[in-house]
Specification:
single chain, about 140 residues, alpha/beta, Rossmann fold, five-stranded parallel β-sheet, 5 helices, about 35% helix
C-alpha cells in the first residue's frame, strides 16, 4: 500500500485520536452524539450501531477505544451489550447514556465506566468521563478489571 492511498491517510489521521462507536436506536440521537464527538478535541467517530447485536458486529470491525451506549436498545439492551463487549480483553471503555436520572442507573455490574444523561452530554462531559475512566491509554495498554 502506498502512502498516498486513502486508507493509509485515514489511518494516519486517527493516530492519537480516541476512536468512538456511537450506539443508539434513534437516528437523531446517533447524529447528536456523533456531533458532540466531532466537537470534542481528540475524539473521532469510527462507527455507529442501532442495536446491541449491531454494536457487537461493528465493534469487532472498528475496534473502538470508547463506546457511547444507549441503555434501551432493541434485541440486547445496553447493559447486556456492555457485558459482552467488556468480556473480551481488552474491551473498549463503555459510557452509558440514557434519559434516566444518574442515580437511577446501576451500571457498575455490567462493566461500564460511567453514565451520563443524554441531556447533560456534551464535549466537556465526554472529555471528563474519558479521563475519569482511566483512559488516555491505548486499547492495548489498558488492563481489564
Amino acid at each position: 500500500m502506498t502512502s498516498g492511498s486513502p486508507i493509509f491517510e485515514v489511518e494516519v489521521l486517527l493516530v492519537g485520536m480516541v476512536r468512538v462507536l456511537v450506539v443508539d436506536d434513534e437516528e437523531i440521537l446517533r447524529r447528536s452524539m456523533s456531533a458532540v464527538v466531532a466537537e470534542t478535541d481528540g475524539f473521532v467517530v469510527v462507527g455507529t450501531a442501532v442495536s446491541g447485536e449491531d454494536c457487537l458486529v461493528v465493534a469487532s470491525v472498528t475496534r473502538p477505544d470508547l463506546v457511547l451506549m444507549d441503555i434501551n436498545l432493541p434485541d440486547l439492551d445496553g447493559l447486556e451489550t456492555t457485558r459482552r463487549l467488556r468480556s473480551g480483553a481488552p474491551g473498549p471503555i463503555v459510557l452509558l447514556l440514557s434519559t434516566y436520572a444518574e442515580g437511577d442507573v446501576d451500571y457498575i455490574g455490567c462493566g461500564a465506566a460511567g453514565y451520563i444523561t443524554k441531556s447533560a452530554f456534551g464535549p466537556d462531559r465526554l472529555a471528563a468521563a474519558w479521563t475519569a475512566a482511566g483512559a488516555g491509554l491505548g486499547p492495548d495498554d489498558r488492563e481489564t478489571p
